[in-house]
Fumarate reductase flavoprotein subunit
Amino acid sequence: MIDVLVIGGGNAALCAALMAREAGASVMLLESAPREWRGGNSQHTRNLRCMHDAPQDVLIDAYPEEEFWQDLLKVTGGITNEHLARLVIRASSNCRDWMRKHGVHFQPPLSGALHVARTNAFFMGGGKALVNAYYRSAEDLGVQIRYNAPVDAIELDGDRFVAARIGGERIEARACVLAAGGFESNREWLREAWGQNERGEWPADNFLIRGTRFNMGVLLKYMIEAGADAIGDPSQSHCVAIDARAPLYDGGICTRIDCVSLGVVLNNKAERFYDEGEDFWPKRYAIWGRLVAQQPNQIGYSIIDAKAVGRFMPPVFPGVTANTLPELARKLGLDEATFMRTINEYNAACRVGKFDHTVLDDCHTEGVTPAKTHWARPLDTAPFYGYALRPGITFTYLGLKVNDRAAVHFDGQPSQNLFVAGEMMAGNVLGKGYTAGVGMSIGTTFGRIAGTEAAHAAAAVKAGKAGNTTARSSKASQDIEHATS
């Protein structure tokens, strides 16, 4: 019998497998995807958000704990577990050396309109390179890896893990880490979560899945139905406004439209519906998918002029281009009269001060609803560009409730040998909203904790001390304590 079974194949699962193996446990990792699609949503990531009190290797200036917490508090609207959130924040300060040990490389700080040179550490080669590095390290350490291995059931004895099932196959282990992702690829579950709106539409029918096609939520649903304590709103997710021409699955970062704060966004009635300049883009990009999802036909249009070009990361598809605003309206299929009225009202309302997209500048609107708080400049310089937007779901926030040992709970009581990490528990920290890189911070932190705790639990079973968790001291917990000292 193996010591630790890890179910999942992304960042959190790999961190758990590596930590469990480093702690001396025998480890098997089950990835539902084929090898060429391994890594879940982690293959589409680029960075993780890191606390630091002074300049550190690839991070400039300082990003102290309290600022990180306030950023998270703002985007979640307070729907977060502060104890677990601060655990993630502190752990984010000291994980990079461990990541490097397992083959992850970081690139120098980014500058410009992304506003993240101070807060986020970027992986050299992106998430795909990170995932590949972790798989290589896991293989070198002797972790057994199986692909095309979708677990569809968990065998429990009360709150204790006994075995996982893949169809008729049964795999026993002394402890288990669940890290199999959310349910964003399950269209029926998304329909159920979002329901039907007042216009008689089923919004989820128009969602694109920015992340992996393999996150169907089978294991999450099984655990909730088996009595595991759940947390989070099933309609909340990392939901980004992406190019409407993006593929149904696995579009990744290149389909995101990053020029929203530099112009205006209209719905299919050619009307504005939210403050495009509310805050820096990394703190607001993940609300725009939900905003577009609330509009008729779940579509929006990001409109900019030539002044914005070069100030944002260009998407994979070029925008619709026109030499005049009326021409752009016609090309986008929007009512020309309403389009021009909306743009003219916005242009007249702009109070242009000193434009600077790297700070919260004083360029704003007056006398128009909704207001634009920052970076408001008239759209008056040809050529003009338009990008059609659809909601792009990256991962869902409904998950399993945990404590700071990453233990799955049943009726409020933590399991002694069943743990969870990554998207399957991110809702403990992310009740709603998002700020760039925090998903990887959560997955890395709780993956490392879950793996170490699972190794301890397996060792206790082998020693005949199952259930005795007093005086347990995991390396992950020690790391976190060191980070706050």
About this structure: Residues 59 and 254 are 24 Å apart (CA to CA).
